[in-house]
Write a structure and sequence with these properties.
CATH topology: DHBP synthase
CATH class: Alpha Beta
Radius of gyration: 16 Å
CATH architecture: Alpha-Beta Complex
Strand content: 15-25%
Structural class: alpha/beta
Helix content: 25-40%
CATH superfamily: DHBP synthase
Low-confidence stretches: none
Shape: globular
Largest sheet: 11 strands, mixed
Number of domains: 1
Length: about 200
């Protein structure tokens, strides 16, 4: 398990290339999202998505969310009406994850057995740079084993994850944030807050 210890404001181009290269090779990263530390991989890498499930000790039927770099990227993978787009422009970029109808372009391993997908456009420039370079959404799920608390630090992961571990850790110190709000936007006339 490799580690990059850095300050997000001083992330070098060399580090950025290393992260994207790792993702392109189908590896799993532990990284700071715009909310909490997450586990991620490129959304089209099915084996990497499976590895995340092994790391988290999570069942196949639980879907993951994806992070995108623009509204146009969201439209590529989700069905978005004019009313939904209007709503998204109010809450994005930011810590709001929305559930939308899935176009089915990504592996079923990512979405489970449902025809929807959870998507977020983060404020983080760091994540936006990675997604733009990779030209692909990134899977995002909290950096912890299922049923454990979210981790606000990426230190000592070697001792925390035993059998399956992330391939690369981007450690920027302790994060003092919480998970994103989760909104079901599939029925724009009946918006549901699933997590505050």
């Amino acid at each position: 398990m490799k580690e990059i210890s850095t300050d997000l404001g001083n992330l070098s181009d060399i580090h950025l290339r290393l992260i994207v290269d790792c993702l392109n090779k189908g590896k799993v990263i532990a990284y700071p999202t715009d909310t909490i530390y997450g586990l991620g991989c490129l959304a089209n890498k099915e084996k990497a998505v499976k590895k995340i499930r092994h790391i988290k000790q999570q069942k196949v039927d639980k879907p993951f969310l994806i992070l995108i770099s623009s509204l146009s990227m969201a439209k590529k993978y989700c069905f978005i009406s004019q009313k939904q787009e209007k709503y998204l422009k109010k809450v994005w970029p930011g810590p709001v994850t929305v559930v939308l109808k899935n176009r089915g372009l990504l592996p079923r391993e990512l979405t489970g057995e449902i025809d929807s997908i959870a998507v977020r456009l983060p404020k983080s420039e760091f994540i936006a740079k990675i997604i733009k370079r990779a030209k692909m959404p990134i899977v995002s799920t909290s950096l912890n084993k299922t049923k454990d608390k979210n981790l606000v630090s990426a230190s000592n992961l070697d001792n925390y994850f035993i059998s399956f571990k992330p391939d690369l850790v981007i450690n920027v110190g302790k994060l003092q944030k919480k998970a994103s709000m989760l909104v079901d936007l599939r029925d724009i006339e009946n918006i549901k807050i699933l997590r505050k």
